[in-house]
Amino acid sequence: MTALKQAYGAANPQPSDVQEDTVGVLHTLANGLRIGDPRGGTLADAFKNLTGELLDWSYPGTPGLPVDEKPPTRAELGKILDYAKQAAADPTHGVGVPPADHKLLRRICNNLHLGELVDHRYVLDLSTCWWSRHLTQEGAKEGYTEHFPVHRLREWLDLPKPRGLDRDLQNLIIAVFALQQQLGWYERDTKVNVSDVRGVEDRFQLRQPPMPTAEAWEAALRFGRAFFGKELPSFRTPANLGVFAGTLRKVAEDYADHAAKLVDALTRHASVLGLDEHAPTGRLATAREVADMLAMVATERDDVVLVDVVASGPGHTGLAEPVAASEVFKQADRLTRALNATQWGLLTAIAGRTGDGRASAVLDRLRTVARHEQHGSDLTAALDEAVSAAATLLAEAAPTDRVEPGLGGRDGRQTPESGGTETPPPGRDTPSVDTRHQHPDGPVDVLVELGGGHQGDDGDPGGDATRHPVQVPLQRTPEVLRNGGESQVTRPDAATGQRRRVVQDKTDLEELVTALSGELRDGRTVEVTWTVRVAP
Questions:
Q1: Has residue 246 been placed in a domain?
Q2: Which residues, including other chains, have CB under 8 Å from residue 306's CB and lie 6 or more apart?
Q3: On the CB side of 182, how many CA atoms lie within 13 Å of its CA?
Q4: pLDDT tens, position by position, for the chain (536 residues)?
Q5: Are 359 and 459 in a shared domain?
Q6: Are residues 391 and 420 in the same domain?
Q7: Which end of the chain is less congested by CB atoms within 10 angstroms, N or C?
Q8: Closest to 326 (Cα-Cα) out of 313, 339, 337
C-alpha cells in the first residue's frame, strides 16, 4: 500500500520502493486542463482535491458555492427564501436572523452573493445581491427590460461562464431576484403565486405588476388597520400587496354575512325601533355602510382595486370613525340574534297605547338607544329592558272580572273546569280544545271575549242582555311555540267568539298580545278577564 501511494503521488516517493520519473501521474484529453500529480496525505484527500480541480475547471463561473460545501437541501433553500421575503418587505431591506441560522446564510447567501448576513441581519438590496445586477444587465443586452422570461433567466445564470448550479438553487436565485426587483409572477397575462422554490417554472415570466398609488396605499393602511383590526405591511411592494389584500379579504369573508343579516333585522323592525330607513346617519345607515364595505372587500379579486376600495373608507359618513364602525360587524352576530329573539308583539302592543305616558317612556328609551351607534349604546341590553317593561305594563292592566278556578262562567253555566259540558252562546264559535302545560307557580287563565256583530238593548255586543263569557282553552302547543313555530291561536270564523288562554311566561303573554292586537285592528271590541291560579 505504501508503494501504491508513492506511485500515484499520494506519498513522497522512495527510491527503494518506486522508480522516480518526471512524467505526471494523471493525464486528461480535455484541451487546456492540466491536472498533474494528486495532492494529499491520503488517497481520500487526493481524490477530493482532484474532483475539486475538475469542478473548478468545468464550472469556473463566480460567484458560486465552494466545492467542499455540501449541497443545500430544499428545506434550507426554503428557509433562505423566507428570510428574503421578509427583507424585501421591510423598508430597511433587512431582517434579523437568530444565531441558529447564521451558519446557513453565510454558507449559502454570502458565498453566492445572494444578499448578505451582516451583524446578525440578513440584508437584501442591490449592493448585496450580485444576481440582480447581473440578470438585469444580461436582459438589457437582449432587450428584456420590462419583463423577464424564466427560461431566459435560467440561461443567464451560467453567463459568462457556467457555474454548475442545480435546478433548485437556480430557482432560489430567480425567486430572490424577483423579490429584490419587486417583480410579479405571471403565466401569460395571469398573475400566479410562487411560494417556494419548487414552484418556479420555465413557462412563467417576471414583470412589474400594477400597484396602488402611494397615496392609496397609505390611506388604506391607516383605515384598514383601524377598521379591520389587523396589522398590515407598511412597505409598498408586490409581495406585500398580496399579504395586504389577503389579510383584509379574510376578515371581510368572515364577517360579511353577519353584517348583512344585521341590516336585514334592523330594517324589519325599524318602525318599532324608531329608525329612519332613509337617514344618512345613525345605526341603520352605519350598518349598511359597514356591510357594503365588507361585501366589496370579500368579493374583490383584484388586489389593486381592493386597496382602492379600502382607501375610500373614510369618505363614507358611517365609516369616518373606523374603530367605532368596526364594532358593528364584530358584534353583528350577537345583536342579530338578540333582535330575532325579541318579543316584538309586546313592544307593538304598548306602541298602540296612545296617551299612555309609561308606554311612551319605554319606547322612547329604546328608540334613543337604537338611533345611536352600537359602540356607545348597547341595543341588546336596551331590548331586554324594553321587553321586560312592556310585559310589566301589560300585566298591570286591570281585569274586568274574575273567574274562580273550578267554577262556571259569570252566568253560572258549566265549564270544562267545573265538570260540565261547555255550550257557547248562540252565534259564538267553538274553538277546539288543546291540553295546557303547567307552570311551577301555577298558570294564569285569561278569558278573552271578542265583541262584534249587533248590539243588544243594553249596548252589549252580541245582542244578549247579559254577556255570557265562556272559558274555552285556546289552542297552544308548547313544543311548537318553543321552536319558533306559528302560534295556534285562531280567530273565530264568525263575527264574535270567546277564547281562553293560559299565560305562564313572557312568550305566552307576547302571543296573547299579538292575537288581541289583531282583533283590535279588525275593529272588534276585546274584553279581557283573567284568573290567577297557584299550583298546589
A1: no
A2: 245, 248, 249, 297, 300
A3: 17
A4: 777 777 766 677 777 777 777 666 676 777 766 776 666 667 677 677 667 666 665 655 557 777 677 889 999 999 999 999 999 999 999 999 999 999 999 999 999 999 999 999 999 999 999 999 999 999 999 999 999 999 999 999 988 888 888 899 999 999 999 999 999 999 998 989 898 999 999 999 999 999 999 999 999 999 999 999 999 999 999 889 999 999 999 999 999 999 999 999 999 999 999 999 999 999 999 999 999 999 999 999 999 999 999 999 998 888 889 999 999 999 999 999 999 999 999 999 999 888 899 999 999 999 999 999 888 889 999 999 999 999 999 888 645 444 444 434 434 444 444 444 444 444 434 333 333 333 444 444 454 444 443 333 444 434 333 333 333 333 333 333 333 434 434 444 344 456 777 888 888 888 888 888 877 777 777 778 777 766 55
A5: no
A6: no
A7: C
A8: 313
Q: Are residues 470 and 384 in the same domain?
A: no
Assigned domain for 260 exists: no
282-to-121, 270, 279, 373, 377 alpha-carbon distances in Å: 51, 12, 7, 6, 12
Residue 457 lies in a domain: yes
388 and 346, same domain (yes or no): yes
442: left (phi over 0), alpha (psi -120 to 50) or beta: left
Closest by CA to 443, choosing from 505, 504, 529, is: 504
Q: How many residues does the chain have?
A: 536
Choose the final residue of a domain: 40, 58, 76. 58
Co-location of 344 and 427 in the same domain: no
User: How far is residue 416's CA from residue 502's CA, in Å, rounded to a whole number?
Assistant: 14
State phi, psi for 446 to the nearest 5 degrees: -110, 120
355: left (phi over 0), alpha (psi -120 to 50) or beta: left
Q: Is 505 part of a structural domain of the chain?
A: yes
- The three-class DSSP label of residue 90 is coil
Same domain, 388 and 489: no
Kindly report the pTM of this predicted structure: 0.61
Domain finish residue from 12, 33, 58: 58
Could you tell me if 429 and 476 lie in one domain?
yes
Tell whether 424 and 377 lie within a shared domain. Answer: no
Can you tell me whether residue 182 is helix, strand or coil?
A: coil
Crossing angle between the packed helical segments 238-268 and 303-311, to the nearest 10 degrees: 60
Q: 378 is in which domain, residue-wise?
A: 338-395
Tally of structural domains, the chain: 3
